[in-house]
Structures are given as structure tokens and as C-alpha cells.
# Entry
Amino acid sequence: MARAALALGAVLIVGGGAALGYALTRKAPAGDMSPQASAAMASAIGKLDGDLKAARASIEATAKTIATVQTVRLAMSIADVGTLADMAKRGELAFNPDANETIDFVVVRAGKPASVLVLPQTAKSTAFKGAGAHHVLAGDDIVALNTIQVVVSDPAAAKRENIESAYITVGKVLPLAPILEPLVAAGITGRLELEGMARPIGNLPAGAATQQKPLESIPGAKLVVGTPAAAKAQIPIAVVGAGAGAAALGLVLIVIGLLTGKKSEPLAPEAQKFQTLDSVSPTGPTKLSSTHVGAAGTPSPVDAATSFAFNPQNLGPGAMIGRWEVIRRLGSGGMADVYLAHSKGEAGFEKLVAIKVMHAHLARNQRAVEHFLDEARLAARIDHPNVIAIHDLGKIGNDYVIVMDYVDGVDLERLLASARTASRQVPLDVALGILCRICDGLNAAHNATSPDGTALSIIHRDVKSANVLISKQGGVKVVDFGIAKAAAGARAVMTVAGETKGTPSVMAPEQRVGEQVDVRVDVYAVAAIAFEILTGHAVNLDLASLAHLGVENWPHLPTPSSLRATLPPELDAIVLTAMAFERERRPANCAAFESTLEQVMKRHGLNTSDKAIARWVDNELRNLIPAGDGFASVVSKPVAT
# Structure
């Protein structure tokens, strides 16, 4: 009793003194926005960043694809408008621009760029700014541009035509009004600045104080907004009264504590111990989603009764997402941000997880939401150590999240790039061991079933080295089932007609042209990874880029043993057959492909443990990460959706 009175008295005195100090010395706030204005600002920046990231990824892929088409390279050698126009008319450019997209063919003569052809023909040529990504403010629109240099296939002809260089610029127009109008409605004034241009937002008074809100998607771009005028500072009488009262009460409690302290006998150590234990009130973990299941037995997102809304723009260290506490942001993709977080349970239990938080502006798009949730629904059906585990999915407020395993490691693409840069070969046992583990994980996906035993026949469709994570302990996990399909039993968002998703450079021919696919497209992609990891050379087998070479002798790659003399010769046929143009020639599934690789390992006395893979990862990371950074900067792969 005495100790409690003394402690409470001290707290009241300190608190009351602090309140008095604040009330008597505070200054008028300047530049504080209302909660509504701050929310509108965060929403506008998030939507603008997300739209720009998605647009840039789309136009960059289109520009690169068109720039490698052999007919385009030949036509650009002589600035042949007719050929380019005919190709566009026949759909041979793999580009069908809609109302807000353009493609501009440009040649440079005597140092001056000139447009050869603009598609669609109703569009205007964009200002040429050289190769790379650029942005233009045009009234109420922002135009994202990506320019790729074309390597002409007939340099002699280009020289005769005085063509010094050729380029393709793909542009996408993003309307600004829907993004900026909510700012004006919230009373925010200012301007959007990027690359030396500005677009006003409302009427910013001359000489008004401003603050800057940078955009992540464009270096140097920012929203410059006016801040409210400072209010006249006034002494808050209520705070003064409360502070004085609290301090006085604190003095009284201290006196009472001192007078009664001598009469109180302290508890015995054993009693103190049991009192402490009895005072603990453990709380169970909160649920993010219910245990409802759909027709396929996959979790269905619902609003948990105890959920609360959060602002994804303010998810810094210490923020809570359900029962998970954010540690740091791992990365961002076109569909979601990814955060490292840890759960807190009873008895000090903690577990690290990676949490995908869908971009708020996409949550209003039902097809995008279904696409996002399908990734978790499908991956949750796969229980295998070589596939990333999904712990939960659901909805908090208006935001959709997926909670999955956190892999403390790095993706295979970065490891191979590091080795390739330094001309280091991946040890053969490690390379084959990683490939077998990838096959294991994919085979588990292909054979996954619903709770009633119905085969789901999940096909990944985007297997590549960037979607394989390897931990510091040597664990190998296949990730990112964002565009996977299930043949039956689970509803997955199907690709619309004419829409091809995946990575063209490692995509099976039948998938590239939009035909029906089966598990052999994943076999093909694993074989492409095999070529990279065994030879140290990157693969680019985009059918659209290589169509001029035909299908004979596909894949158009040298034999692996010709690039690395120490490889067993039998690997040549195994790897190249798995990438055959006709799917019937490939192994029937990933299990069959893995079996052939295991036979090679057995014949040559190779056996790969997780420890061996971990040693290779550690060696590459020491070269990949600057000295002093340790493993702290190596994180699970960000969103690739």
C-alpha cells in the first residue's frame, strides 16, 4: 500500500509538472495538417507511386521485346515506315496499344532525332530524351516513357541512310485528376514537381510556407504542399488546472505513503514470487482470418471481429498488423509492399514472418484482389519444405494481407549474377542439389489436392531464378505463385484472352503464344535455370525475339559442356531436351526431370547436403554484400506480382 501510494504520488507530480510546463511554455503549432488532409496526402502518394511503378514495368517489358524483333531491327536500319506499319497492322510487334499507350520509332541523323512512325497513328511523337526511363507532365496527365536503343541488323544500310542510331520509345499516359482532386477537396494546395516540370494543385498563396512529400517511384519527384498558417498560442486553462491538481494529489499520496510505510511489512520472497505470477494475464493470439474454407478447401478472407484499420503508408518499425509487429520494410512490387514482422505469443514465443500488404489503390479492383488472394489460396494447399509456406491471409479494414514464411537469405538470381560477374562457377554438386530441390517443390505443387482429395494440378507458370530463395542454412524454397493456375478444384483468376503473364526469356513456347499449358511449362523453366546454374551463362529464349530463327534446333543454345568443359556430357541432352520446343519431347513432369538429374549425381558420386549449399551461399554473399554489412541486408525476395 505504502509503496503504491509513493509510486502513484511520484507519477502524478511528474505528470502534473509536465502538464504545467507544456501549458505555460508551448508554442503555436505550424504546418500541421488535419487528419483528413494527411490521409488524403498519403492516399494520393501511394496511388501515384503504385500506378507509376506498374506502368514503368509494363512499358519497359514492351520496349525490350519490340527492340529485339529481327524484322524491326532490319526496318530500323533504313527507317522503313512501310514495313513497320505493316507489322503493326498484322500484330507482329507483340504490341496492341490501347487509348493511353503509344510507341514511337525514332532514328538519329546528324545528331538530330526524328520520329519514323508513331502508333497508334492518332498519337503524337514524344520528345526524345535518350535511352532510359523518363516522365513528362502534360496538363492533367503524367506520361511514363521508356526508351530502348535498337541494335540495327544491317549497319551498312543504316550508314547509307545516314542513320547513326535507332530507338523505340513506349509511353503510357496516367490521368492525374483522379489522384489529385481528393487533395483539392481536402483543402490542400501546392504543386507536383518532377524532372523540371510542375503541375499546380489548387491555388497556393504566394509566399506560403510549404512542406515536401517525395515520390519513391521517381527520384527527385515530389509533392510540394502548403502548410496551414500558425495559430496564435493560447494558454490552455484546462491543462493548467489538471496539471496543478495532479501535482497536489501526488503530494498528498506521498505523505500518506510515508506515514503508512513504517507499518507495512514487506512480503516474503516466496509470496512476492507467487504474487508476480498470479498477476500475469496472458492473452492469446489474435486471428487475422477465420477458418472458413471455400469449395476447394482454401481459406477465404474475412474481416476479423477484432481487426482494426491501419494506414500502409505509416507501417514503420513497431507498427502492428493484426498480431504481427513490423520490424522493417523488405521491398515493394507492382501489387503489394512486403514487410518483415514478428508474431508475439505466450511464454515469449516469437516467429519472423514476411507480410504482403496489397497496395490500397488496387484493393478497389475486384480482379486484382482475386489475383492477390489466389496466390495465397493456391500456395496454402502446398505443404512442402521447398515451397514457401503461407500462414494466413485476410483483410484488416480495407487492406488485404498475406502472411508467409520469412527466408533469411537471398534469391538465386542474385547469387548467380554475383558468381557470373566474378567468373566463378557453381560447384556441380551444389548446382544439381538446388535443381533437385526446385523440382521437389514444384512436384508437390503439381500434385497438391483439396481436402476432399481432388487434384488441384497447380502450375506455377513463372519459375525462374528470381523466384527461388536460398536461406543461409541452405534451404531452397520456390516462391511467388502469383500467376499460378489450378486446373480444377480451386478457383484461380484465369488470364484473359490475348494476355500473357510470366517471364518471356524462360517461358515455354506454348505459354508464350497463349496456348493451353500443363506441368511441362514448369519443367521447361527449371531446365532454363539448369542451363544458367550449370554454365554460368544467362538464358534468353523469348519466342517473339527468336521467331526469325524458326523452331529447328530449338533451344538456340550451345551445349552446356561446350561452355563448361568439366560438366558430365550426359547433362547436355538432359537439359536441352527438357527445353524442347515440342512439349511431348520433354520429361513428363518435374519428378521425371529430377530423376534424370539424380542418376547423373549417382553415377558421378555426388551428394548435396543443405550444409554444402549453405557454404556456397555464404561464399557468394561475402562477395555480394559490402564488408561490414553482414547478413542483415540480405532479405526475403520482395513482391513479384
